[in-house]
Structures are given as structure tokens and as C-alpha cells.
Amino acid sequence: MELSLNTATVRKQWNLAHIIDGCARHGIRGISPWRDQVSAMGLSNAASAIKANNLTVTGLCRGGFFTANDWRDDNRRAIEEAHELRAQCLVLVVGGLPPGSKDLGGARNRVKEGIAAILPEARKAGVPLAIEPLHPMQAAERACVNTLEQALDICDALGDGIGIAVDVYHVWWDPKLEAQIRRAGKRVLAYHICDWLVPTRDLLNDRGMMGDGVIDLRLIRSWVQAAGYAGFQEVEIFSERWWSRDADEVLQICKERAA
Amino acid sequence: MELSLNTATVRKQWNLAHIIDGCARHGIRGISPWRDQVSAMGLSNAASAIKANNLTVTGLCRGGFFTANDWRDDNRRAIEEAHELRAQCLVLVVGGLPPGSKDLGGARNRVKEGIAAILPEARKAGVPLAIEPLHPMQAAERACVNTLEQALDICDALGDGIGIAVDVYHVWWDPKLEAQIRRAGKRVLAYHICDWLVPTRDLLNDRGMMGDGVIDLRLIRSWVQAAGYAGFQEVEIFSERWWSRDADEVLQICKERAA
Fold first, then answer.
1. ipTM of this model?
2. Is the pTM of this model over 0.95?
3. Taking CA atoms, what residue in B is nearest to A105?
């Protein structure tokens, strides 16, 4: 699989312009930028630089957060940006519980309705939506879609133009992982890699570099490929440890470990 | 529901003898001791004190860890102790990945085989086994059974004498929670309560007191009751914060919040 760099991986060392240069310099052919970085660089500048360097945009991070108040406008803008960047998908981190709420079922209904509401615009823009189930430890704060099965049930209900992003960090533990990847088939729109460290010291920013943890990446990759996915594998590491390292060194290690 | 105290809740303040006295003093009619505390007090002393105070032993924590080397002897002893204490069940924390392993499927097979191996002895001793699915964030280190569905699939395969422990902390996020509790029916052998804090600062020891987090405890309790569970609700809070408080105060607050 070809390698893509999710820009969060070196977001504390480099801005987006530096990251685009870095990808080109290291022979990394894919990139998946975060919208705050795109915004800081300027959308058309970012699109031009990515095109000039012939990088494939494997995803735009992120749309979603359907339990926030401004979800509709924000997702509309995200779809436009994904279109402008020619992103292969818009990744949806769907949002958790609204502040003060314990109504998880209600939040999940709002998410389904929100995705249904933006899907026609995404289809019109030619931007596939990729629901990314997040680890159950993020259910309250970031995403109340927490398994591939749950995400695929939503996809089944909504039809074309929507699929899933498989991030090993979020789903590696799932007893139904192989079965649900098989079920997903061509609806796997993105494949994200990193590793689960033992011990894990922080719920958000202690992800591991591939090979430093306990995830059987080769096995999961084989399942994703068997499902028909022929895209990039995208490195996405949120880690105070790796954010403190030299970014060129980080990219070099990503390439070695993803091989 | 009547209240039971899992002894881990005040394990840093009191030894088991103190906890038994505390339960009696506060009118808490159930107790669920950990084996290290039982061992420190002496098994027959613990059994006598519990009986003298007329406490129901809602569970013994814990058997399991089938991926460790001494699993067979350790589980045999756990069953004997549960029998001696007249525990309503032996809680199984099944164990995670063996050191250095990434073979999660293999670990899960070992767990199934281990449970099958000890079940005849548990039946003979009249000790129901309760598989406790642990939160997916514990899959590597403590338990590779991570959903009620997975636990119930094991129960289905093994027949009588085995069920599940439903701990809200581990399962509250599960999109299939209501359906799987319904499926479990009378196989719900224990019901553990606490709360999920936002933010959660530690993967093990940052559980919340009921009411301080985002779990809809009334809703989940209603599902457990609808499934036919008529036992105790057992407070189990691993928390540096609550371990630093006066234990009598902790028990008083547990009673108020569980009401």
C-alpha cells in the first residue's frame, strides 16, 4: 500500500506548507490535511501546493460534530473544501454527547439525521463521506459512533456516497472487526494506521508509532485488502512524544514502519 | 435495588475487616470482596465476619486471567474461595494479550478454552461464573472480552452455570447494550455501577461516583431489571480521588447516589 501522511502527525512541528514540502521530499505520495491547517495556509494556496507536488489527498479531516450547534454550516464548508482539494473523502468525526446530556441514544439519532441532511450536498459535490468510528473511550467527547457495525448500519440506511474510515487505533479491539471489514467491502474509503501502546497514558495524545504497540497491522491490512480496498494507508499519530521529535525524522520512521 | 459495596471502592482506606464493619454500620447489605483482601484477612475469618453481619456476597473478584501461566490453579482456588464465601458468582476478568503478543484472536481462543476447562469445577462447587466484559481500552492489558455480545456468545457455547457481570463503566457506550442485556436475560449475574467522567484522566483509576459523569444509570438499570435481574447493584469505583477521601464519607455518598 502507498503511504499517506495525516497532517496531525507533525502538526506541532510544521505548518501545512512545510508538511507538503516534507511529503514531497520524503517521497510520501498521499496527504490528509486538517481543516484548521488548510485554513491557516489558505484553501487555494493549499490546493495549488498539493497539486503542484502531485500529492493524492486521501481525506480531509474533518466534518461531523453533528451534536454541535453550527453543524450544518460547518459541514457545508467542509464539503466545499474537500471538493476544492479533490479529497478522496471527507472524514466524519460525528460528535459525542451535547454538554450536560446523558442521552447517548438521542445523540446517535441526531448524528444519523445530520449525516442524512448533508449527504445530498456531498453527492452533488462528488465528495464521498467517510464515517470514522472512534474508540469507545471517546464516546462522550468526540464520537458516539464507536464500531464499524454501527457505522455500516448507518451507511446501509443512507445508500450511495457514504462509507467508512477504518482507523486501527479505534477498532483494533473489536471482536467483529474482520467480519465488519468484509461487510464493508468497497465502502472502506480510508485506512488509518498507528499503534496502541501498552500502557497507554492518555486517552487522546498517546498513540504509538507502528510497531511500538500491540496492533497486528499486517493482519488488519490483509482484511482491508481482501475487502477490495486499493487505496493508501494513512499514518495518523496523535502523540506528545512524536510531536516533540524532529519532523523529518518522524516522516522517515513512518516510511520505514509502514513498509 | 439493594446496594452492595465492591471492596475496591475503599481499598486504600480500609482492610476487609474494616469494610465489613463499615457496610454493617451504614446499612449496606451486600459486599463483593477482592481476593487479595480476603487472603490478607484469612478466608475463614472473612467468611465468618461476613456471615455474622448477615451480608450477601454479590460476587468474588476475581477469577480469570486465562492468558497467564498459572491460570488453572488460580481459578481452582478462586472457585473454592467463592464457595466458602457463598458468593453469588465468581467474576471473571479474562485477561488480555500475553506479554509480547499481538495475537488477539489467539488470546480470545485461550480464554474460551480456559473458561470451558474450569466450568465443570465451578458447577460442582455451585459457583456461577460471571464473565465481565471490560472496556475496549483494557483489551490489551486486562481483558480481551470487550462486549456483552462477545461474552454471551461464549455463554451460549458453554451452557449452564455461566453468565455475565454488567459493569456500566465498561459497557455504557455500546450501541447494542439494550439488545444484549435483553438477550442475556437471567444470565445477568451481577450489576456494577459507577460513572464515566468527562474528561477521564486515567484509563484505570479515574472512575466517577454515580451522578458525576455521563452514564444514564436509571436507563441502564431499567434494562437490567426488564431482563429479570433482581439482585443488588454493586458500587465499584477505582479512583485516586475517592481513595483519598474519608471512607465513611465515601460509603455515605455511595448510598445517596445509588438511591
1. 0.97
2. yes
3. B175
